[in-house]
Design brief:
Shape: elongated
CATH architecture of the largest domain: 7 Propeller
Structural class: alpha+beta
Radius of gyration: 36 Å
CATH topology of the largest domain: Methylamine Dehydrogenase, Chain H
Oligomer: single chain
Largest sheet: 5 strands, antiparallel
CATH superfamily of the largest domain: YVTN repeat-like/Quinoprotein amine dehydrogenase
Length: about 800
């Protein structure tokens, strides 16, 4: 009978305990006892003659009924609300006391919630009686399956709780002192009239009542029921007003925000998109064509005469309208229920609003061209004086001898370096300063154990930039801390640090702060000089040239800043992602664009000082590293599918010059631009030189037999003093023009996981295991023309 105000739980009569069916007592093996914790069964709840579950759900029967018994006792005692969560499926049953009545809401949670029943009201006494009867039936079935079930602690507790509810039902129910809050209707400013008579805008109206926004009690942090208020959106377009079908307004809004994310993503990736979203009484259909033509259809599913077809709006008009109405909905919701400010779903909506707003603004940002390009061009000359160094070119043989060796437990290679005659060694929780001539430990200081970057700052200092936001400038000779600055912790990426020295001007240290900020610190005091916030991204890749700082921040904007004041000099927007550093040749920047793991990469040539585009060419794949440039040729490894090539392009025109397959070793090689050739150091001891213009191999050298244990972690080549210092199973000195091996470290030196070469040609070699050695030049021999 429909509409009888009843409540009951229906069991399907077929349970399982592990792999055994419990349809009769004989099914249990001899000696095996009934365990409610192992019982799974299908059941349904029938409220007012209507089934809550279209398909009965299998769950932990006894624990669900236990939770229902506890919730019923709380509701009968006067609690305004009780929630019962299922164990196996993401269902939730919400019980709300409204005087003598009980409001029942039942839904499936998750990213796309489904509401089965909202505010189904029945007499509270009927709910209690139905639960008592259902509990009695469940206990009886358990006893039938195993006569010893009555000895189980949970079964005994359920029987006791059943008798407690029977006592509550036998006497008049306690009525709450305060009546339920009255419902209120909330209308937005755009519900009746549009923003402009001939423009496109959205409005809404919703009802807040005692079972959602105006419910009593403190809502749980993940409470969805409080957000299940009914309402409608209205669309103003083409001087017409169309009302959409009624539904749960907050859930409809989440779908609309999802549509904004889909549209912005498709636009940025230059791909067509077609999506259809249903929510309550409204359907959204969006289409973005290959010609960037955008259209939206909003359908009232209950009255299709209120269908709005929009063919003349842009993705940003749609985004701005949705984001605007979302902010207004959020504001009105928090006015009605301020405690929902900490609701997880409301917080997620707020976060999504911020991200989508920044994304939409970023896509609408126009290019900024620098009108004073010549001023920056004149300051692009490298003012750092060249230091005198030994030149080993033409020497047929070199000899190195080991000067000292130490061991540092927990060595951190990425924070160990050679600087001005001092070896700065970072290990687990401390830093050492070691004099390379005497091997004496000059200083030792404890540091916090966290991800950090260590960079030299001139000739007498180093800066340590920690992810926690602590920046220290340390005296290179004494280890004393000159200054300390505490910024907000880095989030969303690794620490970033770059030293900027401008001749006689005070130097600055540029570091990353929080998720998407850059901060320039005065090297003299540690005080911030300027800050820059990226629009959306935060994984910074920096390149400095003259007075300009080029910023790739993993978003669609490539930016040039003035290093002195952080001012925006020019901005280059494009429908791709910039996440790799730029290469520079003369006055042309070579900037790869693309997305991680995608193959639609594009290479851009940009005027380094004005920001104007000079050319763009397809990479036919995705760039794995920043470009390196030699003789006006930019080269980088490019992956497409499962294949990788070394691809070269002319810097002046962007024309493709050559591609060389490099499958199998692209991810384990190091690349170096040297004069008119590219040097490739492949893991396993193969060194080759490729002509920059033609792509022809000039020479190839096998550096000796190696095994897997001898392959260094770092393969970076050091080009100094006219020769190449190449890490392999040991350190090799190679003539860059012929590929001849001039010298190889003998004995048992550390595996060169880290290799530093100073201006004298001395070698600082560190192995991940903690072994560190320093080798100085002992002798060198040269062929004397005409000599005997």
């Amino acid at each position: 009978m429909m509409g009888d105000g009843s409540f009951k739980i229906v069991f399907n009569g077929h349970w399982t305990q592990g792999a055994s069916a419990l349809s009769s007592p004989q099914v249990l093996d001899a000696g095996k006892r009934f365990d409610p914790a192992e019982v799974r069964g299908r059941f349904d709840m029938v409220v007012d003659g209507t089934s809550l579950l279209a398909q009965p759900s299998e769950d932990s029967l006894f624990f669900l009924v236990r939770d229902l018994l506890l919730a019923a006792e709380r509701i009968a005692a006067g609690d305004p609300v009780a929630r019962v969560s299922f164990y196996e499926a993401p269902y939730e049953l919400v019980l709300q006391r409204l005087g003598d009545d009980l409001s029942i809401t039942f839904y499936r949670g998750g990213a796309s919630p489904e509401v089965m029943v909202k505010d189904q009201r029945i007499p509270l006494i009927n709910f209690l009686r139905g639960l008592i009867t259902s509990t009695h039936c469940l206990i009886a079935q358990a006893t039938e399956a195993d006569v010893h079930a009555q000895d189980n602690a949970l079964i005994q507790w359920m029987g006791k709780q059943q008798r407690v509810l029977e006592g509550i039902v036998s006497r008049p129910l306690h009525l709450p002192a305060d009546p339920p809050a009255a419902a209120s209707v909330v209308e937005s400013t755009r519900w009746r009239t549009p923003r402009t008579p001939d423009g496109f805008s959205l409005g809404f109206r919703f009802v807040a009542d005692a079972t959602d926004l105006r419910a009593k009690g403190v809502p749980a942090g993940n409470d969805l029921n409080a957000l299940l208020f009914r309402g409608q959106f209205v669309v103003h377009a083409k001087e017409r007003r169309r009302i959409m079908g009624e539904g749960f307004l907050f859930l409809q809004l989440e779908k609309m925000l999802f549509s904004v994310r889909k549209v912005l993503s498709a636009w940025e990736e230059r791909r067509p998109m077609s999506v259809r979203l249903n929510s309550g009484g409204m359907t959204l259909a969006l289409r973005l064509g290959t010609d960037d033509q955008f259209s939206v259809t909003l359908i009232n599913r209950k009255d299709e005469s209120h269908t709005a077809v929009l063919n003349d709006i842009t993705p940003w008009q749609w985004s701005d309208a949705i984001l605007g109405v979302a902010r207004e909905v959020r504001r009105y919701v928090l006015q009605e229920a301020p405690l929902l400010r900490r609701n997880i779903r409301v917080e997620m909506l707020s976060r999504e609003l911020r991200q989508l707003t920044e994304w939409a603004r970023e896509q609408q940002r126009q290019a900024v061209i620098n009108p004073e390009a010549e001023r920056y061009r004149s300051q692009a000359i490298d003012i750092a004086p060249a230091r005198p160094s030994n030149n080993f070119r033409g020497h047929s043989h070199l000899m190195f001898r080991e000067k000292w060796r130490i061991e540092a437990e927990g060595l951190e290679l990425e924070r160990t370096l050679l600087c001005e005659g001092i070896a700065v060694i970072s290990a687990r929780g401390f830093m050492l300063g070691v004099d390379i001539d005497s091997s004496a430990v000059l200083w030792k200081r404890e540091v916090e154990r966290c991800d950090a970057v260590v960079v030299p700052t001139g000739r007498d200092g180093i800066a340590r930039v920690a992810q926690t936001g602590l920046i220290e400038l340390i005296d290179l000779r004494s280890g004393a801390c000159r200054w300390q600055t505490k910024l907000l912790p880095r989030a969303g990426g690794s620490p970033v640090a770059m030293l900027v020295e401008q001749g006689a001007l005070p130097g600055t240290l540029i570091v990353a702060e929080e998720e998407k900020k850059l901060v320039a610190l005065d090297l003299r005091t540690g005080e911030p000089r300027w800050r820059y916030a990226a629009p959306r991204g935060g994984r910074f890749s920096l390149r400095r040239h003259g007075r300009l700082l080029y910023v790739s921040s993993s978003d669609t904007l490539f930016t040039a800043l003035d290093v002195e004041n952080g001012a925006l000099v020019w901005r280059f927007p494009e429908r791709t992602m910039f996440h790799l550093p730029a290469g520079i040749w003369e006055d042309t920047l070579v900037v790869p664009g693309g997305r991680y793991g995608k193959t639609e990469g594009v290479l851009f040539g940009i005027d380094a000082y004005s920001g104007e585009r000079r050319w763009a060419t397809s990479l036919d794949g995705g760039s794995l590293t920043a470009p390196i440039i030699a003789s006006g040729v930019a080269m980088m490894p490019v992956r497409k599918g499962g294949h990788t090539d070394l691809a070269a392009f002319d810097v002046q025109t962007g024309a493709p010059l050559w591609r060389v397959p490099c499958d199998g070793w692209a991810e384990t090689c190091s690349l170096l631009a040297y004069e008119s050739q590219f040097i490739v150091n492949v893991a396993g001891g193969v060194l080759r030189a490729i002509d920059a213009r033609s792509g022809d191999e000039r020479w190839m050298t096998y550096l000796g037999p190696t095994c897997s244990d001898d392959i260094p972690l770092g393969l970076a080549i050091a080009a100094k003093n006219g020769v190449l210092f190449v890490p392999a199973d040991t350190v090799y000195v190679v003539d860059p023009h012929s590929g001849d091996v001039v010298h190889a470290l003998s004995g048992e030196p550390p595996v060169p996981d880290l290799l530093n070469v100073d201006e004298r040609g001395s070698l600082f070699v560190a192995e991940e295991s903690g072994h560190i050695g320093f080798f100085e030049l002992a002798r060198r021999f040269a062929v004397v023309p005409g000599g005997r």
